[in-house]
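From: lab user (bench 3)
To: helpdesk
Subject: output format question, protein + pyridoxal-5'-phosphate

Hello, I'm new to running complex predictions and I'm not sure whether the block I got back is the full result or only part of it. Here's what I submitted:
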Amino acid sequence: MINRQMQELGSKRSTIRELFEYGNQRAAVVGRENVFDFSIGNPSIPAPDAVRQAIVEEAAGDPVALHGYTSAQGAAGVRAALAADLSRRFGTDYTGDSLYLTAGAAAALSCAFRAVLCPGDEVVIFAPYFPEYRMFIESGAGAKCVVVPPSVADFQINFDALEQCLNEKTKAVVINSPNNPSGAVYAEQTIRRLAEMLTEKERAYGHPIYLISDEPYREIVYDGTQVPFIPHYYADTVVCYSYSKSLSLPGERIGYVLVPPQAADSSDLYAAVCGAGRALGYVCAPSLFQRVAARCAGMTGDISAYQANRDLLYQGLTAMGYRCIKPAGAFYLFPQTLEPDDRAFCERAKKYDLLVVPGSDFGAPGHMRISYCVREDTIRRALPLFEKLAQEYFA
Ligand code: PLP
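Helpdesk reply: Thanks, we reran it on our side. This is the complete output you should expect:
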């Protein structure tokens, strides 16, 4: 008998994937340029030139070494280079021994959850959240997600609601700032308060509560916004990072787990991360892109294109009466839908070939996610359609 739970996961596409496929079908009928697909978070700016150069130069090297397995945790030289980059930018003293290279943030999160969680444990996540957390935590690690409701005025943390979600079974809390889907960046004040509350609860419950910081958008911020480096505020942090967004390399699958030496039981935890990677059959992260990451860590593509898209979309939509926070980072806008039923609203948007994702998928009904990692021209031509859609409600 096959595993029915896995069969179900594999048979049901996520709403985002459904929309993406629907967009392809519509494109065949009305033409690609007439489908306004804001569904998926695929970076729309090219990788930095340095990435291309690194690929060419590395590919010209010894092919046997280049394409061989690396150490399970990543090549030692690569990990040392990434640790040096973190030290340079954040004043840390990590070595490569704190880093475990992975196939992107998805694999990093899966390893971190598997390393920390046992069946029956609880993990607190904040709505709106990246939907795959449920998959990794519940179906992957056999633990339970406890969701803190969204703080819709600013998408910072509702601390009263958080406190009600914490108990002796809480093993981990997940944050994602800059956030997918809201674009919010947690203020330093928010992180300080979170660190205080978790420290107090660790004492009360007598065990560590790991703060798993999912940071694929760390460098994608606008208007000089600062993203606090979480391990500076809370020792029991595990960072899950990816080069998918910062270097526009989502298909190449490269990222890491950072287990800072200050975290509780850090050597055992690091070993557990390696063990989780082994149990999941990850073997090692892609070897060519380990080297590329080592050479390009800390860089980004030209994110001013995302900022221009954000401004155009935010100004356009708010002028029409849509209500929305101004995102400080990532490449998503998360406006309120013009009727409480977000699924009905997003269905109606399809009439105009506007493909946007219902907030319910992220645990925040009454919203829609618009991925603005698209060509500027797509936004310009979509705005009149958003206006027509709004007129259906405001008329
Ligand atoms: N976490 C968040 C918040 C994301 O938005 C994504 C991808 O969109 C991931 C993790 C997974 O990223 P990766 O492509 O590195 O696996």
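A quick orientation on your result: The radius of gyration is 21 Å. Let us know if anything else is unclear.
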